[in-house]
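Q: Predict the assembly, please.
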Amino acid sequence: MVAQSEQARTQQAPPNPERIFETLNAYQKTAALKTAIELDVFTAVAEGTITHEALAKRCQTSDRGMRILCDYLVINGFLTKSDGRYALPPDSATFLDRRSPTYVGAAAKFLALPEIMNLYHDLPAIVRAGGSLKGEEDTVEPDSSKWVEFARSMSGLQRIPAQALAGLLNAAAGEKWKVLDIAAGHGMYGVTIAKQNSNAEIFAVDWPQVLQVARENAEAAGVAARFHELPGNAFEVDFGKDYDLVLLTGFLHHFDQQTIVSLLRKVHAALKPGGRAMSAEFVPNEDRVSPPAPAAFSMIMLGTTRAGDAYTMSEYDEMFRKAGFTSNEIHRAPGPQSFIISRK
Amino acid sequence: MVAQSEQARTQQAPPNPERIFETLNAYQKTAALKTAIELDVFTAVAEGTITHEALAKRCQTSDRGMRILCDYLVINGFLTKSDGRYALPPDSATFLDRRSPTYVGAAAKFLALPEIMNLYHDLPAIVRAGGSLKGEEDTVEPDSSKWVEFARSMSGLQRIPAQALAGLLNAAAGEKWKVLDIAAGHGMYGVTIAKQNSNAEIFAVDWPQVLQVARENAEAAGVAARFHELPGNAFEVDFGKDYDLVLLTGFLHHFDQQTIVSLLRKVHAALKPGGRAMSAEFVPNEDRVSPPAPAAFSMIMLGTTRAGDAYTMSEYDEMFRKAGFTSNEIHRAPGPQSFIISRK
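A: Predicted assembly structure:
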């Protein structure tokens, strides 16, 4: 009852344009968080540098700049402030202190690249045209250094979902697996499976420069001997055959449905009877507006691809069935992505 | 009790990087809201165009672009969606439907200009330097067309606070007032006083091109005969003397404290004994991090000025006293600004 009357009160509040103006200035939130990560403010606070003057000295900035930056981070929940002293709330301590094993700061580099942010200055034209003004090559360009940067900056972030996936597949049971990792990127999904299952052989597809990042991760995990490279474009390279498992992590969303179905046919052909395709994807509910994180991913696809999307489960189900798969199951993953397990 | 245990549950939630990623993508919120305003989506929905296909047709966009844009606006609270049909929540109906008398869409143009947004790509360098890399002329440039645009886009938005101020000063009592409106911009504060008090004469200071916008507003309000122009830089122009009231609306925040004090001395000299200066300003609490809207204004001053700020009331009090004022009162205004009334 308390919660309900609170809600009723809020709904009766007089109209207020504050959130409109907050949103028109929201680009400053991106800039401030990225700047604090770049200046390593969170690590400095975690190590006990807690006034703006001391932080300015340590991070080699002006007093005024550091004070305004830190206060703005407090307003947005990334620092706390008490008696002029800053501290880290739990999420910042876990994800923004460079010394934390779950540090995600490296991903900030990729997510808020000025050249990606600038695409959105043209959003009215993008909405008119129906997709990226740059053309498909922007996404699937053969040797885009963007994807090397992406692979490097995202590996840390994908450790937890990769472990969740290996657990979901029961990799540790040690069955003899031939695994195809399509658009492997950082390679963390295949590498984590290989680490948990010493009878798994991984065949990774991606551009040669990107596979180098995956190979580094395979070496670091001690599974390089079972890590094989299939360099090239996933639509053109010969996958080989008789796979037990095909990984499609964060790849399908870049394309239109017809293109996805044609790729899935190729995946289907490469699988053993009874083999499984495992996709990690941003899958909103059928209403396309919830939960917020996977639903909002469609805005990234609108700005950066010609026809990619955050597809719903019914859309994925239809695409996999068209390609010959017999059943599809969805599992929520840690973070905004879901796992879809599709059986041949 | 219900609310408390809900809070406890939230605090014990496992760490989640979702808000970090949401913030790294927050620039897309700015772009989406601005785009929807530019395409006039909110007006179209208000007029009964409620599916994405129909909206695409009416706003001359692609289906895909309109669907993703509208869903993203739902995720961010600017539209609602039910069975594939969009509707306006109360704040959007009040402020984003072009036919509403309180439409604020014109302000979006100025607040999210690409050239202002791009300044924040350099935020690390700005924090190091302590202020705008562009130099003071960016703010106080004599004939910046930016300020003409600003004056035009902000007049609608300032109608409500301008009426609140005229009420606070009891303009309607009709005392004979000589009013100086410094950096008048759209002129709405002085014009509203003149409209409510037919014995008020307004003397407006700003660049000639900007005063033209103020004059248009004075004419529209039927007070042009009592609207006088003092074109030029507020720091250099001769104000004249014996003013009952000096208006300083949204101006002081652009400067450092020493510059403000020197301007306030000039204001003090122009006032009659017992006359009042009335400032409209973003004044956070002494902690500088609350309330969020005036506190976050300091980030705009960091990016766009060399030494401006969202000053606290104790700082304004000190500046006004240094300039000779005897008392200062603060009044919360509708919206993020406060009124400071300072007596000679």
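The first strand of chain B starts at residue 80 and ends at 82. Residues 1-11 of chain B have pLDDT under 50 and may be disordered.
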